Amino acid sequence: MKIPTLDDVDVEGKSVLLRLDINSPIVNSKIADTKKFEAHVTTLKELESSRVVIMAHQSRPGKKDFTTLEEHAKVLSEILDRDVKYVDEIFSNRVIEEIKSLRVGEYLLLENVRFYSEETLKRSAEEHSRFHMVQRLKDHFDLFVNDAFASFHRPHTSVIGFVPVLPSVVGRLVEREVNALSRVFESEGSKVFILGGAKVDDSIRVLKNVLKGIADRVILTGVVANYVLMLLGYDIGDVNKRIVEEGKSDVRDEEVIEILRKYRGKIVVPKDVAVDKDGARLDVPIDEFDGRYRIGDIGSETISMISDEIQRHEVAVVNGPAGVFEDEKFAFGTFEVLKAVSKVKYSVVGGGHIATATRKFGLEDRMNHVSTAGGACIRFLSGEKLVALEVIKDYWEKKWSRFFGRA
Ligand code: 3PG
Questions:
Q1: Least packed by Cβ within 10 Å: which of 22, 145, 241, 251?
Q2: Taking the CA of residue 312 as centre, how many other CA atoms within 13 Å lie in the half-sphere pointing to its CB?
Q3: 291 CA → ligand 1 middle, Å
């Protein structure tokens, strides 16, 4: 099924509802990284001849960085070099008035959509379309453009709820992401996945899926490697077990043991680890480790083994850091993994922390693609369907394509 894009619709003079993903790290009430904003610039600029109302979220209720989008509007204004208005509500009468008064070439950012309690209910697009947010706003727009690739795995109101009631297409960022990530499947040659980070559940999900077909090798680093070492019978100690447990909620040990048995020759695990001994890095072979210290990185022998392994492949996908790279003494593993990945023919970095590390180490320009997405990127690369993409394609085919000559 075709993915409808901005090429399929006419935006000139139209009122466009645009969903972005500008959910970003916030430090001391300031947005600490504007990469996600910059990634939307192509789409935003392409809508210069429309009236544009932007919806977005920041974090989740209960979290420290769950906040209003006032600062986000300022960042958008800066990177677009034009005023982006902001209204601290989502679908009140005031918002409707603001939308009505918008002129061609003007942008308005609405409040954090997660302030609205129905937003995150897991419902179908049809059900979401009957919720207040959609019913109140839909009649004020000609078109819905979804550019929030990092949220494409979320069946939320602002992500899928407008699709049944407004002609809907994806934005340019989504196109770039889908094309770049699809090349992982389409590229010839052998493929290596390097999985790390602290989200054990996510990594195991990817491990399971990629081993079924696409990956020739999977290298485990970070907390997920420590979990697997534990399952292989190594004593990683209580402090490291606790960190593993924090990243793990629905993974069953027996299932992972079965995967390890079935794909033994394809999975690479660390042979040494770097621990924090009285504030200094100490490399210890895994069979000599007594579990006394916190593991902060993969060990030096592992680093050189996996750097060589990575460079034997044509395609490399890295998802999640190898260690606590924010701490200089534990940055070595992540840095060397990224360096090796940057040397293969087609290199992809999957969002979140590892994208930040790639920038920090100045390696961004040496990668073929650094995704803006974490969960959505992982799911896509695992061969899972992204709900927002499916809904847009589905409604385009069954409903909206007939309204546009270029379908
Ligand atoms: C992300 O940062 O991965 C997206 O913005 C989605 O955020 P979420 O995991 O809170 O839904």
A1: 241
A2: 12
A3: 34
Q: Residue 57 CA: which ligand 1 atom is closest?
A: 5
Residue by residue, DSSP assigns 302-367 as: HHHHHHHHHTT-SEEEEES-SS-TTSGGG-HHHHHHHHHHHTSSEEEE-STHHHHHHHHTT-GGGS
| Pairing mode, strands 107-109 and 30-31 | unpaired
pLDDT of residue 202: 85
Is the distance from the beta carbon of residue 334 to the nearest atom of ligand 1 less than 6 Å? no
Q: In whole angstroms, give the CA distance from residue 81 to residue 145.
A: 21
Q: Angle at the Cα of 306 (from 305 to 310), degrees rounded to 5?
A: 130
Residue 294 has pLDDT above 50, yes or no: yes
Q: Which domains are assigned to the chain?
A: 6-174+386-403 (3.40.50.1260), 188-344 (3.40.50.1260)
Measured from the CB, is residue 386 less than 6 Å from ligand 1?
Answer: no
The answer to whether residues 22 and 36 touch, using CB atoms and an 8 Å cutoff, is: yes
Quick one: which atom of ligand 1 is closest to the CA of 374?
3
